[in-house]
Amino acid sequence: MEEKRILCVGLTCLDIVTEVAGFPKEDTDQRSAGMSWRRGGNASNNCTTLRNLQKSCEFFGAMSSLDNDVASKFAEQDLSSLEIAFENCVRFPHPLPSSIILLNNENGTRTIVHHRGGMPEITTEDFKKLDLTKYKWIHFEGRARTKSGERPDVSEMIAHALQERKKNPALDFKVSVELEKTYEGVEGLGTEADVVFVSKEFTGKFGCESGDEMVKKFREKIVKDAMLICPWGDKGAFASDAHGTYSSPVFSPEKVVDTIGAGDSFVGATIAKLSEGMSLKDTIEFSCKYAGAKCGIMGLKDVP
Ligand code: FRU
């Protein structure tokens, strides 16, 4: 039987990364120190980390059905080259979303301008078509429905996955969700998941000033036995479960060269280690080391 996969549900896009010697002033003209195309998007980046850590994984999200969409072809080739499955992706006749990213060579900061264009979002109905027996973990990028309905509510997908798991003893996957963005509705998405990631930005929106405070307070909003994990950039990471709270320091590389997807690497590494049964405390320390090492190299592949 094929090894069970880790499924990541969310965005894949083209990242057009332009390196700059310093952050440019508006309305000036300069040469770039380097330029690259990368496959990006949180869920897609999570998969890259999972493959680096030798996990069998699958990306599920919207992709282009257009024959002439170069960005989509590029992303597909890249997914295939890393053996990340994507055969269940939903195809739409729209170009793949893209991001223009300025990577500052001075300090590794990344400034992202994302363009989704006309690409629709996948729906709960699409998610329901998946054969859930194939997965040992299902991770969702937290996306909440807008008033006009253009975003799917991943809480519906999470509810479906959990209902199926309850009905069928053969389904033993864990469910995780990342609450990263701060738009309205995101706070309601993690309430049922087994593992909830909350970003620094989301923590601020929730009214907490530190990761430490967040992993205590946000527990009221999630199920009692869930794990809550809050990566906090240069302060490391904080976590809590039903038994207590944990923290890890940051592990900075000698020089920070590239922070694009550092948070996604943290999440991917955490899922990889928790899926192996590593303790929450050891896992967040591993993931802080992994994300630190990532910031010391260009890109997300081949993190040492
Ligand atoms: C990094 C990233 C990029 C992408 C952007 C989308 O976390 O996933 O790869 O362009 O965020 O918001």
UniProtKB/TrEMBL annotation:
- Entry superkingdom: Eukaryota
Task: Tell me where the transmembrane regions lie.
Answer: none
> Which CDD domains does the UniProt entry name for this protein?
Ketohexokinase
Q: Which Pfam families match?
A: PfkB
What InterPro entries has UniProt attached to this entry? Answer: Ketohexokinase-related, KHK, PfkB_dom, Ribokinase-like
Tell me where in this chain the Carbohydrate kinase PfkB domain is found.
Answer: 4-299
| PANTHER family per the UniProt record, alphabetical | KETOHEXOKINASE, PHOSPHOTRANSFERASE SYSTEM TRANSPORT PROTEIN
How is this protein named in the record?
Oidioi.mRNA.OKI2018_I69.chr1.g106.t1.cds
Species this chain originates from: Oikopleura dioica (Tunicate)
